[in-house]
Amino acid sequence: MTRVAVVGAAGYAGAELVRLLLAHPHAELAMVGSRTRAGQRLSAVHPALLGCTDLVFSPLDVSRLASHDVVFLAVPHGTASELADLLDEAGAPCVIDLSRDHRHSDGWVYGQAEWSQDALRGATRIAVPGCFATAISLALAPFVAAGVTRGPARVVAATGSTGSGATPSGTTHHPERFTNLLAYKVLTHQHTPEIEGFLAGLGSLEAVHFVPLSAPIDRGILATCFVTVPPGTDAAALVHRAYAGHPAVRVRTESPQLRWVRGTGLCDLSVTQSGDEVVVLSAIDNLGKGAAGQAIQCLELARNLPSSPLSPALLP
Question: Which CATH architecture has domain 2-128+290-302?
Answer without folding.
Answer: 3-Layer(aba) Sandwich (3.40)
